[in-house]
Amino acid sequence: MMFNCPVELQEQILLRLDGLALIRASCVCKCWHQLVTTSIEQKTDFWHDRCFAEIKKNVLIDLLGPSRAAQADSYGVKDDTPSTEAAETKIIRPIKPWTFWKEIYADWYRCRFVGCWEKYSLKITKRKISCIKIVGDYIITGSAHGILSLFSGVTGELINDFQCHGDRVTDIQCILTDNPPGGQPSCIQVAHGYVQWVVTASADASVCVSTLLGDQWGERKKYNQFHSREIYNLRIWNRYIICASMDMALTGHSIYELSDGMKLNKVCSLSGNLDKSGIAVWNNKVVSISGDLLLEWNIDPSVFENAIIDSVNSSVITPCSVDIQCLQILFRGSLIIFCTLDGGKLYITTDSKHYVQHVLLPVFGATAARIALRGHLFVILTAVGHLHIYHLEKDKDFITLDLTKAITIVKTNCRDAGSLDISDDGNGPVIAISDHAGTVKVIRWFHPS
Fold first, then answer.
1. Is the Cβ–Cβ distance between 140 and 127 less than 8 Å?
2. Rounded to an integer, what distance in angstroms lies between the CA atom of residue 170 and that of residue 320?
3. Per-residue pLDDT reduced to its tens digit, 240-258
4. Are 176 and 195 in contact (CB under 8 A)?
5. 312, 296 in Cβ contact below 8 A?
6. pTM metric for this prediction
7. Rounded CA gap, 119 and 446, in Å?
8. How far apart (Å, rounded) are the C-alpha atoms in residues 97 and 117?
9. 254-303 pLDDT, tens digit each
């Protein structure tokens, strides 16, 4: 019956489908395939509108990546709406091509159904590893001796490595851009962008910016004059790099601006009751744990120029009655998740006032080694190498989380696990883990054909 309708009416009907239904409709016949691929996708904002209609605001910003977070308005994302389920995000006309938004939608859709996918594992054995990062089809590892290595995530082949730091690499972050750098072949294409530069931190108190591929591999700008203490971790927000370091001589956590020439310029410091704890960043807010306090800072580039920014809020973490040493902290919107240093307890809050506490050993038979959050996927890596993966649609689902009901559990037998990263390679979710002995395992999910 629908085939007898005018083409314009068919198009209007198809425009009201969700993203998955449109893809399926394009496979019905040649006529609809042509209508979808040449008219709806290319001449309308269908994929942009679908992203905003179907993907939660904070999840969408999460998928855009931290280096794009401060530019969210230019992507059509407004993060200043009330944090209620009924709040609607204001949509502006997108400046990104429809292919960009289709890739974002596909990335989101794939991670929603990870429990239904088949797993494939790749094992890489290398020197003692301290941290790991997935970049497209590649794996970057940092060693306990300061060496940065680049592997193929498909074959496990070592592509290159170099001495980046003088001590243990504590964190690896990548700078994501929309377009490949002009005249620069040394970049990696990822699911919806390009990565040319990687930023690393080390126990030798230095921050390093390095290229990834090509003849420039190992070319870097190293800055070690800014800290006197170990850098625990670092986070990227737009063009700013925030380093977590209990460096009292320089008033705590430092913020650097990354210039066009990939040079780091210190712009301010975050002060407060600092402790040996990492940081997490969401848009223009930084959080950290100090004793039984949750510290918060607002990042405002207009007050930079080597200013010292005090914490704007120090709320007591309940139900804790003793000081907390934090292993890792995750932050997205109003959601904050952190794990204690011994890996024994997990705390979750959506309002910074009321906390849900999980004791992990009775549930998993092991403590947590690392935790990760991407899109709707929340991952807990235990010390015995088991991955417990949960799919959570809304922030309130984290509060009611039942740790015994993971959508899938992957037993990697990667003993003494210590590093974890989660990403998407354009085909499906990818998780990489490593142990302290130097074994890296990469797990992919491919939808059964």
1. no
2. 28
3. 888 888 765 556 788 888 8
4. yes
5. yes
6. 0.86
7. 7
8. 29
9. 888 887 777 788 888 887 666 667 889 987 888 888 777 788 888 877 76
